[in-house]
Design a protein that fits this description.
heterodimer; A: alpha+beta; seven-stranded mixed β-sheet; six-stranded mixed beta barrel; elongated; B: alpha+beta; three-stranded antiparallel β-sheet; 4 helices; 5 strands; about 50% helix; about 15% strand; globular; disordered C terminus
């Protein structure tokens, strides 16, 4: 009962506050009147009686306050007043509010964006059941450094699949990018991404089709299978989106046919929505791979399969590797002409995420640093503000405001800032995430799936609240500790500035400098790495050339037509204005390994040496004037020409390093080698090119497209070298293409330098992000330095006035302030150097030919930091010299 | 005149108010006057504590309020004891009786005057 009446009264008091107050006033007025009346009757005059009446009551306002307290709505009413007061004070000093909110927005928004990227890529990278059991298998090359990963030969794969007891299931994928298929006809024709897989693929990933059935082993050599080129039964599993596009999402699609590359495939199943391949990403359709003995399949030196496996539950990866080592020894005996039999396992997650995990760790670290910086900066801002308002608070507490109320006021102020900052941070997070997708989409896997999640929203607000409590409490407590009298007296005493209070802020600034310095070093290392990368000699000239893919649909182009078309395009495009050479290649150099085929010397000193005469070399199919188009020098012999047609014996060009490896001491031209199941005669030797953007050279064999068109649809990348602008060349080439076949698409046109620069894309991306953070950090620490020094100068205005009145030179005053600022910077920089040591552990994986303690980078960062600090310190120092002794001492 | 007045003992204001209101409904000034009279001008009711106490008592459901016209033809807020208020008065009286007896025992005791220890 009393509880009900209590609640009722409180609510009534809250909602009918105006009426309550009015009634209370009336009641108190009545009291005063009665008291006055009584006094008057006892003989006082009216004025005195009224005065006594008021006196007895003890101040209407104070009683009103106490009555309000008793009503139990005091807290809420005060909060309302505090919030309103906060809003007023913040609006009155918009500079402070804007800086604080922006600082918070950058910190909170940046960390949310990066956290969501890390979450998408690192924390949940494999959307499959028990992803911890999934591994990727690589074969290891004997002659390469230990880090080199080779794909797997079908010969070895079949043994791994049947003999490895550590594997619950094993699957092979053909992830080559030319494995597309043309569907539809005429104008509706388009190219889809096709992934040939071995039967157990869906079992390994534990994702069965949502409709229909997965492939079984029988599908590998079922009806229509062509062992020679590794294509299994004419059966297909569709992705959810292809099923919707081609069959309108009809469940009856199972058992019907889809025509791909002009051939009918029976639809076996439809994958669930959202299913992506862990390695190849978004795929439109899966077809079975034929692994029976055949031309490609029987070659124990033909490394072209991507192999993934699922370990038996609970089996450590080391045990599986031990079994793999034992098997490797047996396989080496079983296939004596295979160059490699060793293999290693990597957790699939690590393989997919790769070095991008380092990138994201670095970004996460950077964002943590920036977040700390942000908190320190806002804390500093609030500290300065709190001490500026010491007078105000002293006055208020002298006038009777409670300490708790003052603390609450400050807390509400920082909470308001944090919430506003958090809201602005959400906007920054959205922008930041779009930026991350744009900047990193190409170099970081699965980043395109990034989106703002509700969890992250909570994360962001939790962060902002944490910040508020963190940096709001310290100044609040400090302000509350101030004795009103002391503080009011201090106004006149503060000539030399409160020593202890300055100290805290100085340490905070030194910490900011240290954090900013660490980020500067990280940025500097990446800049240096990218500079080195750009200086790497790739063996060809990426500048002034255009590259694009050109797919010729099987349905309209048979092998002869493809050969003729590529030749015709190269010839005609070569006559375009400004274009100096046009050619095609199956895979651009410096963009990673591709077709690694066993290559055996049939003549020369190693002709009968099974081991030395056998290497796994990069195979490339070229057309047109490829070597002139990318500027690879011819060192010996001749290049391909029109005489090397399909009727002529197979001919090949080799790179210098391959010539030296297989034919040491003799002229390579005229020698013969066996690769891809065919015997070719070497007609020339060309310069070495890098296999990746880091410039690692590899051994290459080049084949002529006219002779190999029948092997498969090579989907050659076309390269146009031009003396004019790339845009003009692209427009001209597109027009030419349309005139030759209006249905063809110029796929992904871009400058050759961009196409081969994708190896450095990850570094560039990291650099940009880290660079942004470093700039923000630098700006924040400069701001912090500036703020603290300015405040110090303001506090010491009287001291400076006295000094100058006593004859101190402006230069001496300036030096004093500058010295104070630069001392903080120096302390921070030394601490930052220690931080850079910690940073180097992460950076090692990202730098390229740069020591993580590169003196140029460290020196540069110090110089840069010093300059910024000097500017930040100079402005307050200059102001200190402008102090007019007369005004300062008044 | 004011020199012999004393502030109310801590915590007794509510009990005295309840007692005053047990006789008849009354306005705030009346309550203060009545307590002063009944204590023969010994107790001074600080008005600053009376009104907050009245609000608290209303919140606890011991009194209800209504606006009425006084004998002098003025509008005033009258306080009236509820059943819960009457029960509370009984409780407080009992507590007070126990406490004052105990205090008297202590004050009348000779034990403390014996002074030093053995």
């Amino acid at each position: 009962m009393s509880l009900v009446s209590d609640l009722y009264e409180r609510l009534r008091a809250l909602f009918f506050r105006a009426r309550e107050d009015r009634e209370m006033h009336e009641e108190l007025q009545f009291h005063v009147d009665m008291e006055t009346e009584r006094n008057r009757r006892s003989g006082m005059n009216t004025g005195e009686a009224r005065r006594q009446g008021h006196l007895a009551l003890g101040g209407v306002d104070q009683i009103s306050e106490e009555v309000r307290d008793a009503r139990g709505t005091r807290l809420l009413e005060d909060m309302k007043a505090d919030v309103a007061y906060t809003a007023r004070t913040l609006i009155r000093s918009p500079g402070f509010a804007i800086v604080a909110i922006l600082t918070l927005a950058i910190g909170i928004g940046g960390s949310t964006a990066v956290y969501s990227a890390v979450d998408a890529v690192l924390i949940q990278p494999l959307p499959y059941q028990d992803p911890g059991q999934l591994v990727r298998l690589y074969m290891a090359y004997d002659y390469h450094n230990s880090d080199y990963h080779a794909w797997v030969t079908p010969v070895h794969f079949l043994d791994y699949r049947s003999r490895m007891s550590s594997f619950e299931s094993t699957a092979a994928l053909l992830t080559y990018s030319e494995t597309g298929a043309d569907i539809g006809r005429g104008d509706a024709g388009r190219r889809i991404r096709l992934l040939p897989v071995s039967a157990d693929y869906f079992t390994v990933l534990r994702v069965p089709p949502a409709l229909g059935r997965p492939f079984d082993r029988a599908a590998e050599d079922g009806p229509g299978a062509v062992a020679d080129i590794g294509i299994g039964a004419r059966s297909v599993v569709l992705s959810q989106s292809l099923w919707r596009q081609e069959f309108n999402g009809d469940p009856g699609a199972i058992g019907r046919t889809l025509v791909m590359n002009g051939e009918p495939f029976v639809v076996a199943g439809v994958m669930p929505a959202g299913f992506v391949d862990p390695i190849a990403g978004t795929i439109d359709a899966w077809i079975p791979m034929d692994l029976r003995a055949g031309k490609d399949v029987s070659n124990a030196n033909n490394h072209y399969l991507t192999v993934i496996a699922r370990l038996r539950p609970g089996l450590p990866i080391e045990r599986a590797e031990a079994e793999l080592d034992l098997l490797g020894t047996e396989l080496a005996k079983q296939y004596p002409n295979a160059a490699n039999s060793r293999a290693r396992l990597y957790p699939l997650k690590e393989d997919v995420v790769g070095t991008s995990s380092r990138v994201l760790e670095l970004m996460l670290g950077a964002v943590a640093l920036v977040l700390i910086l942000v908190c320190v900066n806002v804390a500093n801002l609030l500290l300065v503000r709190a001490s500026e308002r010491t007078q105000e608070f002293a006055l208020r507490s002298a006038l009777g405001a409670e300490r708790a109320r003052l603390i609450r006021q400050l807390l509400i102020e920082s909470l308001t800032l944090a919430i506003a900052g958090g809201a602005a941070g959400l906007v920054v997070a959205r922008l930041g995430m779009s930026a991350i997708i744009v900047l990193g989409g190409g170099s970081i896997p699965r980043l395109s799936a990034l989106h703002l999640e509700p969890r992250l929203l909570v994360f962001s607000f939790a962060l902002s609240t944490l910040c508020a409590v963190g940096f709001g409490l310290a100044p609040a407590l400090r302000a509350a500790q101030t004795e009103p009298g002391e503080s009011l007296r201090e106004q006149s005493r503060s000539a030399t500035g409160g020593g202890a209070r300055m100290r805290t802020r100085e340490w905070l600034v030194a910490a900011q400098v240290a954090l900013a310095f660490v980020l500067l070093v990280g940025t500097g290392l990446l800049v240096a790495s990218i500079q080195r990368l750009r200086q790497v000699d790739l063996g060809f000239e990426p500048a002034a050339a255009l590259a694009f893919e050109l797919h010729l649909p099987d349905a309209r182009y048979d092998s002869t037509a493809r050969a003729r078309f590529y030749d015709a395009f190269a010839d005609q495009a070569g006559t375009l204005r400004g274009v100096t050479a046009v050619g095609g290649i199956s895979k651009l150099p410096a963009t990673g390994p591709y077709h690694q085929w066993g290559t055996q010397a049939l003549t020369g000193p190693y002709a009968n040496d099974e081991r030395k005469g056998n290497v796994a070399a990069e195979q490339r199919i070229v057309s047109g004037r490829y070597f002139q188009a990318v500027n690879i020098p011819l060192l010996d012999g001749r290049l391909f020409d029109a005489t090397d047609d399909a009727r002529a014996p197979d001919r090949a060009l080799v790179s210098k390093s391959l010539a030296e490896a297989l034919f040491p001491g003799v002229r390579a031209v005229g020698q013969r080698l066996n690769t891809g199941g065919r015997v070719s005669e070497i007609i020339g030797v060309v310069g070495d090119v890098a296999v990746n953007a880091e410039g690692d050279p590899d051994q290459y064999v080049y084949h002529w497209h006219a002779q190999w068109a029948g092997d498969r649809n090579w989907a050659l990348v076309q390269i146009l070298r031009t003396s004019g602008s790339l845009d003009a060349a692209q427009a001209d080439a597109r027009a030419l293409l349309t005139s030759m076949d209006p249905q063809l698409v110029m796929w992904k046109p871009m400058p050759l330098s961009d196409a081969v620069g994708q190896g450095e894309a990850q570094r560039t991306f990291t650099l940009r992000v880290l660079g942004c953070f470093a700039i923000v950090a630098l700006a924040l620490s400069a701001l912090g330095l500036f703020g603290v020094l300015s405040y110090g100068v303001r506090l010491r205005t009287r001291e400076f006035g006295i000094r100058m009145a006593l004859g101190a030179q402006p230069g001496a005053i300036r030096r004093m302030v500058m010295r104070q600022g630069l001392t903080m910077t120096a302390i921070g920089t030394v601490a930052g150097l220690l931080g850079a040591v910690a940073l180097s552990r992460i950076m090692v994986a990202l730098v390229f030919k740069v020591s993580t303690f590169d003196p140029r980078v460290l020196g540069g960062a110090m110089l840069f930091m010093g300059c910024v600090a000097a500017i930040a310190a100079y402005l307050p120092a200059r102001r200190a010299t402008r102090v007019d002794p007369r005004t300062a001492l008044q | 005149m004011a020199d012999h007045r004393t502030d109310l003992l801590q915590g007794t204001l509510e009990m005295l108010t309840l007692k005053t209101l047990a006789l008849e409904p009354m306005h705030g000034w009346g309550i203060a006057q009545r307590i002063q009279q009944m204590s023969q001008d010994v107790f001074l009711v600080t008005q600053g504590s009376l009104y907050p106490a009245l609000v608290r008592m209303r919140r606890r459901g011991w009194v209800t309020t209504s606006w009425k016209i006084t004998e002098n033809n003025r509008r005033a807020r009258y306080y009236e004891l509820t059943a819960a208020g009457r029960r509370q008065l009984t409780v407080e009286r009992a507590t007070w009786a126990r406490a004052s007896t105990a205090i008297n025992w202590i004050l009348d005791s000779q034990y403390g005057l014996a002074g030093g220890t053995a």
